[in-house]
Amino acid sequence: MNATNYAVAPGDYLEEWIDDQGFSQQKAADLLGCSRKQVNEIINGHAPITSETALRLERVVGIPAATWLKYEAMYRSDLARIADEENLAQFAARIAPAAASYLRRIGATKGNMRTPGKLVSDFLAFHRCGTWKSYEQLHAELHKGDFALATLKDSSTELDQTLFSTWLRAAEMAKPYELGRSYEYAPRKLRAIIPELRTRVAQPDSSMLNDIARMLSEVGVVFMVVDPPKGLPLQGATRWIDKRVPVIQQTGRWGMDGFAIWTLFHELGHILNDPRGQTHLEYSTEKQRGTATEKSANEFAKNVLFGAEGLAPFHGMTNDAQIATKAREMGIAPGVAVHQMHRRRMLDYKYGNSLFVNLDGTFTA
Predict the structure, then answer these.
(1) pLDDT per residue as tens digits for the range 11-24
(2) Are strands 234-241 and 280-283 parallel, antiparallel or unpaired?
(3) Which of 253, 248, 239 is nearest to 283 (CA)?
(4) Are 256 and 343 in contact (CB under 8 A)?
(5) DSSP string computed for 278-340
(6) Per-residue pLDDT tens over the stretch 224-279
């Protein structure tokens, strides 16, 4: 049953019966054994129908007492909901339009700015928060990770909290995350499979992302690709389930192998080298990464993928064939080489794009 923006008092049904019978309110009161004032207050929704009154109504009107009490409960519930939504409406402007659109797209709300209270109520329900204050308190913790406010201030791209939290919560409701709750993380085993992971991603194809998820699950790490709200400026994030199980969550933005591969090893660097429980973000646009952990994660990814020489072997290259040949000699996907050459301004963005492999829509784990 869809919620309405109005409440129907059970007295409406009593008033209809009185009219059908051709009675006055006084006549109904006489039959019920109460005052005319009480009948009038019930009709106008000012007085509740108690258990005793419901039994009298059953004998006089013929509608079961349980039905009268159900009408009363629905009325009071609707009044509370409407008042609650009127109060919540003040927070609607704090929800990014893209977050609201995302929730409508996945069926979590039908609310919009024409029904702001409904939108905020559904937003809070999606996040399992009873009030806007509890939402802000809960997700303020997200800004205490190593990426922190200082890093955000260094970025030209602002991270909207409602976009970010909605994306995180969408992951928590997905099957891979739920399965991860039972994982046992084994850091030594994770380190041991890094070469195997590097070998696998050197040949990107439609099964690569699912293979990565399978390989990481065997060492107690969750890997998942979660479609993001429009405008979320992230390529991926590292997070933890109860500080026990690491989660690598990617947006799959652009669906290109270079982005996915670099982000994978960047986030693996966080998992292996940073304290448990911290949240780390990988932006999809170039930004200043001033923290030691971000630099360390980048260094880890660079060393695993490119080795001690880094990108030096690609210096001065602009020809796709040359880049592809050198990448394959190094045992890496050409797309990840192009991705890093673009990021480091070693290669103009008009070059190298044909070397990317499109992975869009290939993750099904």
Answers:
(1) 999 999 999 999 99
(2) antiparallel
(3) 253
(4) no
(5) --EEEESS-----SHHHHHHHHHHHHHHH-TTTTGGGTT---HHHHHHHHHHHTS-HHHHHHH
(6) 999 999 999 888 889 999 989 999 999 987 789 999 999 999 999 999 987 776 66
Mind giving me the DSSP string for 88-140? Answer: HGGGGGGS-HHHHHHHHHTTS----TTSHHHHHHHHHHHTT-SSHHHHHHHHH
| Spatial distance between the Cα atoms of 158 and 239, rounded to a whole number of angstroms | 20
Instruction: Give the C-alpha separation, 229 to 121, whole Å.
Output: 19
Distance between CA atoms of 320 and 335, rounded to whole angstroms?
A: 10
Quick one: angle between helices 51-61 and 25-32, nearest 10?
110
Contact 186, 220 (CB under 8 A): yes
Q: Are 78 and 44 in contact (CB under 8 A)?
A: no
Q: How far apart are CA 189 and CA 107, in angstroms?
A: 39
Tens of pLDDT along 176-185?
A: 999 999 999 9
- Cα–Cα distance, 298 to 267 (Å, whole number): 9
Question: What is the residue whose two structure tokens read 């051709």?
Answer: 22
Amino acid at 176: P
End-to-end CA distance of the chain: 34
Predicted TM-score (pTM) above 0.90: no
User: pLDDT band for position 288 (50/70/90)?
Assistant: very low
Q: Give SS3 for 227.
A: coil
Domains and CATH numbers, the chain: 11-88 (1.10.260.40), 167-355 (no CATH)
Does 286 have pLDDT greater than 60? no
Contact predicate 159/281, CB 8 Å: yes
Single-letter amino acid, residue 358: N
For residues 86 and 278, give the distance between their C-alpha atoms in angstroms, rounded to a whole number.
37
pLDDT band at residue 1 under the 50/70/90 scheme: very low
At 213-236, the pLDDT tens digits run 999 999 999 999 999 999 998 888
